[in-house]
Amino acid sequence: MNSQTTDAYSVDGGRSLVLTLRHTAKIAFVRGGVLPWFLVIAVLLLTSSTDSFLTTSNLSTVARQSTYLILAAMAQMVVLLTRGLDLSIGTMFAMSSVTTSMTMVALWSGEGSAWFAITIGCLAGMATTIAIGALNGIGVAVFRVPPFVMTLAMSSIVAGLAFYVTGGTPVYGMPAGFSNVFGYGKLFGVSVPVIITAALILLMFVFINWTRMGRYLYAIGGNPKAADLSGINTRMYLFLTYSLAGVITGISTLLLTARLESGESNIGVEYPLMSIAACAIGGVSLFGGVGRLGGVVLGAIFIILVQNGMNLLQLNSYLQMVAIGILLILAVVADNYRQKLLLTMND
Amino acid sequence: MRVEGISKRFPGTLALDKVSLDVRASEVHVLFGENGAGKSTLIQIVAGVHRPTAGKIFLNGREEVMNSVHHARELGVSAVFQEFSIVPQLTVQENLFLGSEMMRGPFLDKARLHRQAEETLTRLGFPLKPNQLVMYLSRAEQQMVEIAKAFRTKPSIMILDEPTASLTERETDRLFALIETLKEEGIGVIYITHRMNEIERIGDRITVLRDGKLVQTLQVADTNQQQLVELMTGRVIDQVFPEVMSHPGETLLDIRNMSIAGQVVNKVSMHVRAGEIVGLAGLVGSGKSDIGRACFGVGKVTSGKINFYGEAVFDSERKVNLLKPRAMLDRGLYYVPSDRREEGLAMMLSVRENMSLSSLALPKFSDRLFLRRKSERKIVAEISEKLALSPFNIERTVEHFSGGNQQKALIGKALVRIERHKDRIGGPGGEAPQPSGDGRHLERPIEHITGGAQQKVLIGKALVRDVKLFIFDEPTVGVDIGARMLIYRAMRDLCETGAGVLLISSDLPEILHLAHRTYVMYRGELRTELSQEETTEQNVLKYFFEGVDDQ
Question: With a cut of 0.90, is the ipTM above it?
Fold first, then answer.
């Protein structure tokens, strides 16, 4: 961004307005990270290059579309904070979508109230992701399998099962009520997924900043040994963390399944990468111990925003994948640069 | 070598302000100052890590600009930093020659590598094997590797940043002998230390820095301790070590015939009582650290008995083993690890988060569901103030503090466990479950309990508190004199308000001045127990080494 600033500034400082401005920009960059810049640039570009971007209907679409990724990114975040990684988030989506829909289809006769089937279906879906998360947790915490290997292997296992059970075809025939409420429903003009996500963000915020376990996540990721010696049961908390990731992903899956109106064994493929990207762009360290929830939420919104913009510009969806990948790398590069600046500055 | 008018500005601060100094051939030039005075910045500039904002560096009369550490090394400036630059996954010899491996054609000449590594290590007298993996070495041994690495080449200027911080007396002697040899070979040495006796032993000239400015350069022979400390701190300091009253009470920790896996410790018996500081001295590798760690549940105890506060927490015969950090913390034993970076602190978290980490479950920091962040901030700020944390910003990440202040955070982490919230003194009850017994004194911060009041507390006794015994493992490694004083005073307060303190240390003066009783370890065995009167330098050293007085 401003590679000469360092040199320019080290010549006995404060010579001109330009230098002062640069310095201010530098401080803003160091404080706030890359995300605000990314967001501003994206909004400016999209507003100027399309007519429809800055409209209420489009922005509310962005908000609703963001919900699934925001939730997935929050799940990824708690794991990343502990110096872990969850690559099985994608197949959690697939498997849980399948179990939810199959359960509902099996329990619903097609007439009368469907709420029993819906409730049990949702519970089955949640049970699926929680079980997968718990298994990840056991592997990582008890058997000390590196998170990368554990969750990668788990994603293969789960994806295989999901395809085996469904034969790869979508599961149709869920009660319409499920989709009408959780997929397309509105409350006071705001779509239900957005309300649920907002509530969960609030809960997560309290969890991360105001509870002991929230603090412990940072400590475990920051220095596992120190955490151990501080009397923290790191194994138990690791287990709980992966299970929690399962819980959050489960809720996201239910919302997405409701929206799709079918159980799909091939959804969620992009979520591991996208959730990690949202976290990285949002300032979560991939080495554990650092990151804020606000950044993660904004990071997820940013990605959806870019996707939305690219759709409006009618950019080829394969090229969109290219763009997301590039953004991820850029974000990490910019963050490294930020860390470097941070070290040269004192406060 | 000569540096002139060196300044270094980091945005927001002037780390160095027009500092000039020269290093002659065959001299040891000591840099002296508190943590954060600019010593490290200065040597980092000289060694090519940072570039100065202003000022010039001359080598043998020629002006040079150091672009990198590598470049500096080519110009003959070699440095041993406090931060290690060794690769844990490689062996000692691989580390020694990292970046300048000997080749035979396109292949590594491993035989020569091994031979040369062995030669270097023997010359330095370091008891290391070239084939050992660095990750299995202790911190002191890693430090040796680091030193050996710098000695591998023949520099004209050698920079040593607190090289003895984790070395024992004997290893230090070897290093000093080596520095003498360097001097004879015409090498100039820049030496950073906080230890007075080292300055007197090997220093020729000394430069004192304070707040980034040069205070004075003096001949070591013309100075004394008092003067140096005054120059460094800018104020008169009466005494580094406080007087600690001892009122031994009931036995807190009672170890009988304890052995630790891997023969590190064999059949050791010792005890620590409330209201006394017990020293545990010995060379690196004598097993002294392992005893403290084992009692806290780190490392495997194979046989023997350990009682804590009357309760059997380990008994190999009755198959009792309750040794786990969480369990021991709950029982009231707190262990302060020696390696703050590896085991003590989460470097990317703030001082506040670090200090409260092991005490978050206590009612003053959280109720059943949520953290009490206000109370947390307050308590941490109080402790930090008492320890004179500088800069005084508890939200700053630990990483960005100097070593001494990081150590304060580590000590503070132990202290917050017992610190009570001032607001609660005599306040309406019921806000949090109060410990039974004589709760009044507990509510008061220890700093306020002085003199006669202490006596009353001690007579009142039976203190019900969260921590009954503190184990400090090398609490002042790499810490300047100001921070040391504060840490010692904190220990005194702990002891005089009725806690037991086990002080594990390689720093002899510390043991001599603070401990009421001292155990000396030698190669995993307990050599002796000395009373305060018997604890003299000669006496302790006698038991440190093999051959002398071998019973």
Answer: no
Could you report the per-residue pLDDT of B451-468, keeping only the tens digit for each? 333 333 333 333 345 788
Q: What is the dihedral of CA A16, A22, A24, A27, to 10 degrees?
A: -140
What does the pLDDT look like over B477-507, one tens digit per residue?
A: 777 777 888 889 889 988 888 889 999 998 8
Q: Does A153 touch chain B (CB under 8 A)?
A: no
Whole-angstrom distance, CA of residue A31 vs CA of residue A33? 6
CB contact under 8 A, A229 and B326: no
β-strand pairing of B107-108 with B103-104: antiparallel
Listed in order, strand segments (DSSP E) in chain A are 186-187, 190-191
Ramachandran angles phi, psi of B547, nearest 5°: 80, -45
What residue of B is the nearest CA neighbor of A226?
B343
By residue count, chain A amounts to 347
Chain-chain contact of B413 with A10 (C-beta, under 8 angstroms): no
Quick one: tokens of B261? 């896996």
Does the beta-carbon distance from B51 to A10 stay under 8 Å?
yes
- Output the CA angle B302-B305-B310, nearest 5 degrees: 145
Residue type, B61: G
pTM for the whole thing? Answer: 0.77
> Tokens 């000449």 sit at which residue?
B109
Mutate to test the interface with B, among A6, A82, A230 (most CBs of B within 10 A): A230
Mean pLDDT of A312-322: 88
Listed in order, strand segments (DSSP E) in B332-453 are: 333-336
- Cβ distance B51 to A23 less than 8 Å, yes or no, reads no
Inter-axis angle of helices B373-386 and B403-415, to 10 degrees? 120
Of B11, B325, B335, the CB nearest to A345: B11
Size of interface A-B (CB pairs under 8 A): 106
